[in-house]
Structures are given as structure tokens and as C-alpha cells.
Amino acid sequence: MTLEEAKSAVSGLCREQAARWREAAMEVYEAAELNWREGRSAEALCRMLEEAGFSFERGVHGMPTAFEATAGTRGPVIAFLCEYDALAGLSQQAGVPERRETHAGGAGHGCGHNLLGAASAGAACALKAYADKTGLAVTVKCFGCPAEEDGGGKVFLARAGAFDHVDAAFTWHPGSANYVCGQGTLAVTGVMYRFAGRTAHAAAAPYAGRSALDACELMNVGCNYLREHIIPEARLHYAYRDSGPLAPNVVPDHACLHYYIRAPHVAEMMDIKRRVDDVARGAALMTGTQLTITEVDGFSDYVPNRALSELVQTVFEAVGAPAFSDEDRALAAQFRSTIPESERESNIANDCRASCRPRSYYGDKVLDDTVPPEPWEPHVAEPGSTDVGDVSQCAPTAQFYVATMALGTGGHTWQMTAQSGCEIGWKGMEKAAEIMALSGALAAADPELLARAKQELRETLPDGYFCPMPANARPEPPKD
Predict the structure, then answer these.
(1) Which of 105, 130, 268, 373 is the most exposed place for a label (fewest CB within 10 A)?
(2) Which of 385, 36, 38 is CA-nearest to residue 190?
(3) Both ends of the chain: CA-CA distance in Å?
(4) 253-284, pLDDT tens digit by residue?
(5) How confident is the model at residue 33 (pLDDT cuts 50, 70, 90)?
(6) Are strands 139-144 and 67-71 parallel, antiparallel or unpaired?
(7) What's 296's DSSP letter?
(8) Could you give the C-alpha distances from 270 to 265, 281, 341, in angstroms and in order?
């Protein structure tokens, strides 16, 4: 079957199913559940897949909100990756271009994972329907992956070998621009540094105390000096999880820092982590405190697969960008007006870097309705991190972005939340599902392509997959 024939068949099936995807996306939007607590969200996607005839395993690999859905028992294994966790503090009424929370202080889909999960599950349903219609030999897998924002459900799946027999994995992410991901991402590890000292009255007997807060401060100073001596692409950032007693006249006997340590590759990240550990040990030594280091989590860097990425690019160009209406553009303009110009331009600059396009490419567009040429810079790392990286190191993987919000909208914002629950977001979601389903159909019918993709992965990672997730890490919300 030619590309055009496959496109016609898959696109028709997607149109038939799109209304159901919107229902699922809004169920997840309204549930807005945080990491490891996405019970209603996961169930919304499971119901949609079950209705389409998928068999199920729920609560896989010790994660109550993870699932693995399967259709078919022959041919290559084509997998789609769902995410559905929300972000704290980003509750927002859908489609409303002003700050208006649904639940005061509640969670919201400020990264568009309601769209991401529904599109990936939708792609799986469309590919199954296509295989049923055409007789294509393919085993369709859909993985429910909790806690992408903080916890890394895909890493636990990868560590358990869930992707070892996958021939090709496809995923996407909502964004403000359209492009195939031809760059890597930063590997990351999260580490808690807890210092225990000795309390004392800070005026009467400060010499009797040993300040855990001083240890934290000295560790941060040491890491600031360390930044000069690590690779420029690396990142060190932190938050206080515990700053000790609140009274200023008490020497703090406990304090804790939560560090994120990032680098373009896992090996580089782990080397920098060892150096940060030494800085923390030095701070403990200087202050006479006791240090406990607890590794919380770890994500690998994303390794783009050229064979699959080129396929996705071809499909993206064939099906085109989302077809936004004048009404969509008018609403997007209202959202854009709520974002300060400097912030908006910084966000567009990020899109330009990732898509390898000049700023002039987007002009004064309010919504991206173009498909740029594939950017291929696998040795460049986007500044963020994702647990898709661990999938990409176990199976050939392609990832792409589709416009679901106004150009210049930043991730993890109320504006992104709002646009993830209206026509703008839905149109991007439907296009993403169509791209993934058609890419999966063409990949399953092309054993030579899949062989090239596997060979490329072996050559890129000759030593195989090293899981950066700590052995004792558990799929549960982090504890202070």
C-alpha cells in the first residue's frame, strides 16, 4: 500500500474516532491528578482502549496507575506512550483566556498531558482498526506511563524490561510549534541531601550547636563554584525541602536540599553527581553535621532514532499541520495577550532552537500552521528532561511536537492548561494521533526500516541501556 493509500485509510479512521478521543482528553483534564495518583485519568484511557478491543494489564510493575494494553499477536511490535499526570497549582477553567481556577490551589494540565495521553491511546486504537481492516500483521502496544513530571513511570517500565521487545515506539508532546524532535534531552537525577546537626540557643550558647542550615548554605556555595568546572550544557538547581526550625534564635539541627543534576548523557550526569556528593560531604565536615544522601530518581537522555524520525517527518508533511480556524486564532490571540512580550519571545526562541528555524520563520503568526524541515542535531541537547529518554535507550523511538497553543505560550503555565481543554488543543491532539497511527502502520509494513532503526540504536548505544533510577526507588510521591 502506498503512502497516499495508507494515509487515506488511517485519516478516515481517525476522523471516525476523534470525538471519543476528545471525551477521554476532557475526562483526564477534569480529573487533573498528580504523579502516582492518576487513578481516574488512567481509567479513562483504559476504558477507551478496552472499547476498541485491547486486552489489558493494569497496575503493571508495581505502579497502580500504569497499564499495558495489547492488540494482536503477530508481526512487529509498535508501541505508543501515554502520559496523564497533572501539575500542582495550575487548575484553570478550560478555554478561558484569563486566570480563573477551577479549584483554588488545585492541579491542572499545564503540560498538556491530557492531550498527550488521549492522542497516544487514540493512535493505538486507529492503528488496530487499520490492521483489522487491511490485514496488516502488527502487534499494537499502548503503555500507560504515570508520573512523567516527577517520578518517571517510563523508567520503572524500562528497568523492568517492558520495552525490550518493542520494534518501534512513537510519542509526541503538546507545544506551541510543530516539529520532529531531532535533538536529545538532558539526563537528570534528583537527590536529597539531608544534614543533621545539634540544636542550641543561638544567643546564649551558639558554640554548643551544629547548624544543618549552615551546611546547606555552604553546599550551595560550593556548587556555585563547581559550575565553572563542569561542562556548560550541565545544570545544577535546587530547592530547600526543609530549612530547619523557624525561630531565628535556634541553631537548626535539621535541613534538607533537593538537587536536580542534569547533563547531556547519563555517564556525564553521574560523574557530576559524584562531585556534588563530595561538595555536600565537605559542607558536612565544615559544619560538624551528619549527611545522608538519598537518590530519588533518574532519567536517561533522549536518543532520537533517525530512521523513525525521518518516517515521522514524511508523515507529518503528508498529513499537514493542524487546520486552525479564524475562531481558533482569535482565541489564541487573547491567550497571547496575557503573556508579557519578553516572556513570549523567550518561549518562541526555545521553539526556534528546537526546530532549527530562524525567528523570522514564525513571523507574527499566532498559531503555528506549518511543518518545518526535520531538524537533525542528535548531539545537541534540549534543556529539559523526560523519561521518554529511557524508552529511547531500550527501543527505537521517535518523538515530535504538535501545536496545541498560541506561539509564545510557555509550558507549565495556566495558559497552557486552558488551551489544553479547548478546540485549539483538541485539533493538535487529533493531528498527533493521526501522525502516530500512520507512522506505526508504515513502520509495521516495512521490515527493512525497522531493521535500520534497530541497527542504529545498537550503534548509538553499543553498551546497551544503563538505568539511572536508584535501585531502591519506589513509584510513590516523594517524601521530604
Answers:
(1) 105
(2) 385
(3) 56
(4) 999 999 999 999 999 999 999 999 999 999 99
(5) very high
(6) antiparallel
(7) E
(8) 9, 17, 38
Smallest CA-to-CA distance from 132 within 17, 254, 284, 258 is with: 17
Q: How many other C-beta atoms lie within 10 A of the C-beta of residue 237?
A: 10
CATH of the structural domain 187-296, one choice from 3.40.47.40, 3.30.70.360, 3.90.550.10, 2.60.40.290: 3.30.70.360
Alpha-helix runs per DSSP H in 191-291: 212-226, 266-287
Map out the domains of the chain as residue ranges.
3-185+301-460, 187-296
Q: What is the pLDDT of residues 299-340, one digit of tens each?
A: 999 999 999 999 999 999 999 999 999 999 999 999 999 999
Residues 212, 213, 216, 218: is their CA dihedral positive or negative? negative
Torsion, Cα of 388, 390, 393, 398 (10° steps): -10
Residues paired with 259 in a beta bridge: 191, 238
Residue 400 near residue 439, CB atoms below 8 Å: no
SS3 244: coil
CA 315 from chain center: how many Å?
22
Average pLDDT over residues 181-195: 97
Q: Are 167 and 236 in contact (CB under 8 A)?
A: no
In angstroms, the Cα distances linking 445 to 68, 123, 317 are 23, 16, 19
What are the grid coordinates assigned to 424, written together? 485549539
Characterise 75 by phi-psi region: left (phi > 0), alpha (psi -120 to 50), beta (else).
left
Distance CA 434, CA 1 (A): 17
CA–CA separation, 421 and 78 (whole Å): 28
Instruction: Pinpoint the alpha helices (H) of 227-295.
Output: 266-287
- C-alpha 421/C-alpha 430 separation (Å) is 13
- Cα(231)–Cα(263) distance, integer angstroms: 8
Residue 480 has pLDDT above 70, yes or no: no
Type of residue numbered 120:
S
Please name the residue that has the C-alpha cell 529539559: 384
pLDDT at 477: 80
Confidence at 479, pLDDT banded by 50, 70, 90 = low
Measure the CA–CA gap between 435 and 224, rounded to whole angstroms. 44
CATH class of 3-185+301-460: alpha beta
Which pLDDT belongs to residue 186? Answer: 97
Q: In this predicted structure, what is the pLDDT of residue 472?
A: 85
